[in-house]
Every structure is written in structure tokens, then in C-alpha cells.
Design brief:
This protein has 172 residues and is mainly alpha-helical. Helices cover 74% and strands 0% of the residues. It has one domain. It contains 8 helices and no strands. The longest helix is centred in the middle third of the chain and has 36 residues. The protein is elongated, with a radius of gyration of 19 Å.
């Protein structure tokens, strides 16, 4: 299967043409949300492994009952989580378009080298953007915690890292 078909198939599976980044996230099915998350994990330069593991963001924070978030903090973290999701959807779409252009130009019998080089750079830039744009969301999520919650967070993250390293050691 060629790269152009893979990109188009990925866009169809994700349903990315159907919902813009400005639309409500609730308009997406769970399958579409999971597919968008999988696409992010596959294309964001290992963000979840390298950065997200050590600095989990709002989605993870909302799941940690031992942080005892206030209702105001829950609202703030939820807003960050939703903003992060909208940004991810937008960036996924942008990367898919860059891949589609790269694939189309690559298939031409006599491609314009300058346009092809620009398309390749766009794929690289858009791949990096997926990871780079997540960092501020993760930092803002952490900054919203109280000093006592930050200590609990540090303990939870340390346990999370130990668990991930132990898993990696067992399954290299």
C-alpha cells in the first residue's frame, strides 16, 4: 500500500474531515478519540514516553483521586485537557495534510524538487509541533496544583516511572 493511500485511509479512520478543531469534542465518537490519541502517540516523537511519563498532564491529573482536586481545579484541568485534545486534533489534521502532499508529490514522475523538499520539511515541522504544543498544557496543569498536591504528584509520578521502567526491564 503506498503512502498516499495510508494517509487517506488514516484520515477516513479518524474521521478527521468531519469535525473541525473548533467543534465540540463531544461530537467525536470514542473510536475517533482513541484513533486520534493513537495517531498522536505514533507521530509525536515519543512525547508520551520521553516527556509525558515524567510530566503527566491534565488528563492524568484528573484521574488521580489522591490529589483531592477542588471543583475549581477540576474545571481548570478539564479545560486544559479539552484544549489539549482540540490542539491534538488540529495538529493531527495538519500532519496528515503534510503527509498527503508529500505522498502526492513523491508519486509524480518528475517532481519539482523544491516543492518536494518543502513538503518533507512540513512533515518534520508538523511532527515536531505535535509534541511541542503539549508541553505548555502539561506545565499549566502542574502549576494549578497547591504545594501539598505537588508533593503528592511527585510521589505518584515517581511510582509511575518506577513501574514503567520495571515493565521495560521485563519486556525490552
Amino acid at each position: 500500500m503506498n503512502a498516499g493511500r495510508i494517509v487517506v485511509l488514516g484520515m477516513m479512520v479518524l474521521g478527521m474531515g468531519a469535525v473541525s478543531a473548533h467543534d465540540r469534542l463531544s461530537a467525536l465518537s470514542m473510536a475517533q478519540k482513541r484513533a486520534a490519541q493513537a495517531y498522536f502517540r505514533a507521530h509525536a516523537l515519543g512525547f508520551s514516553t520521553y516527556y509525558g511519563l515524567y510530566h503527566p498532564g491534565p488528563y492524568w491529573i484528573l484521574q488521580q483521586k489522591s490529589l483531592h482536586l477542588t471543583s475549581a481545579q477540576r474545571r481548570q484541568e478539564t479545560a486544559l485537557k479539552d484544549g489539549m485534545a482540540r490542539t491534538t486534533l488540529q495538529d493531527n489534521r495538519r500532519l496528515q495534510k503534510a503527509y498527503a502532499l508529500y505522498a502526492r508529490l513523491s508519486q509524480e514522475s518528475h517532481p519539482d524538487i523544491t516543492r518536494l523538499e518543502r513538503a518533507i520539511h512540513a512533515v518534520g515541522d508538523d511532527t515536531a509541533r505535535l509534541a511541542v504544543e503539549m508541553v505548555p498544557y502539561h506545565h499549566k496543569a502542574y502549576r494549578r496544583l497547591s504545594p501539598a498536591q505537588k508533593r503528592i504528584y511527585a510521589t505518584l509520578v515517581a511510582a509511575r516511572v518506577r513501574q514503567a521502567l520495571a515493565h521495560h526491564k521485563r519486556n525490552p
